[in-house]
Amino acid sequence: MHASPDPQGTIGALKFTQIDKQGFEDRAYRLHYNESQSRADAFANAGAAVGLAAAALLLPRGSPPLSYGLAAAGGSAVGTALGVAAHVASRPPEHRTPNKALHELVRSD
Questions:
Q1: How far apart are CA 75 and CA 57, in angstroms?
Q2: Of 15, 33, 44, 86, which shows the fewest CB atoms inside 10 Å?
Q3: Is residue 105 a contact partner of residue 15, using CB atoms and an 8 Å limit?
Q4: Percent with pLDDT over 70 in the chain
């Protein structure tokens, strides 16, 4: 079975290839000072730390050395995803605005 590419994702990728250095700097500045983004980052970081700790505590002693690295990466990844999900589920009403970048990708024809 062959999956077709996501047209919005393709359009989004093409749009970002056409941004100049000033556009990237502007985007980075806006993300850095965005309260919701800062909150999402904090939740993701906390989730990654909890996931890493859980993986370290739950991995059986005497596991092969590679298992420790995989458990650390997997625990951090799952923790990050759960942290972002917690952010989305508990964000304040003033942070619940539509994504402007997605709005720009919607075709008007």
A1: 11
A2: 33
A3: yes
A4: 72
Tokens of 48: 């990654």
Give the pair of three-digit tokens for residue 14.
């093409």
Q: What letter does residue 35 receive in the DSSP assignment? A: H
What tokens appear for 96 in the block? 């619940």
Return the DSSP state at 23: H
Query: 89-98: which pairs have CB atoms within 8 A and are 24 or more residues apart?
Result: 91/36, 91/39, 95/35, 95/36, 95/39
Nearest to 42 by CA among 5, 93, 4, 95: 95
What are the DSSP calls for 82-97, one per residue? HHHHHHHHH--GGG--
Give the tokens for residue 49.
Answer: 């730390």
pTM here is: 0.66
> In sequence order, what are the residues at sequence separation of 6 or more whose Cβ sits closer than 8 angstroms to the Cβ of residue 50?
79, 83
Is 84 in contact with 43 (CB distance < 8 Å)?
yes
Amino acid identity for residue 12 in this structure: G
